[in-house]
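Weekly puzzle thread! Below is a chain. First person to post its structure in token form gets bragging rights.
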Amino acid sequence: MGCRSLLTAAALVATLGVTAPPVLAQQASSDRVLAQPDSGFNPSAVRGMISRGDAAAARGDLASARTEYDKARKVSKQLLSFYRDLSGAFRGLDARIPREMDEKGREALGLLAESDLRLAALFRRQNQPEVAVPVLVEVVKLMTPSKPQGQKAYQSLVELGFVETEFKGASRPGS
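Winning reply:
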């Protein structure tokens, strides 16, 4: 080992005892920028996007409404993916974290379905039913026809004439 390597190693070892250990305690809520309800990266921020889209649609600004709904869809998909990844990474290590991530994932999934439904309604309002179909099919896939959002999406597909068979709900055994 050369002299330079020895000096570098000695400097590293010397600084190990001097540097402060990383802080693992939770940050103050003001430092948690992604947790901010209006501008963060969380389900609350997605709800804000949907609300802004609803307000824009109500005043007839369909371009702004579409922008907000598209942002809500994109962020919902990202959140859903990240929550699933984190849940899987901690499975078997600390049950609390997967449980929290699964709960947040279900919330993100519901928000994705809501933003999809709003976007499909916007396309219908703009007389673009063929553009609404893939969004509605996505809702049925995400939520299944047994959930209210899935039923609403399927009913819209019936109303558009894309499908003909009415869904009467899940049949009970022995019915």
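Puzzle host: Confirmed. Bonus trivia for everyone else. Residues 37-160 form a domain with the Serine Threonine Protein Phosphatase 5, Tetratricopeptide repeat fold (CATH 1.25.40).
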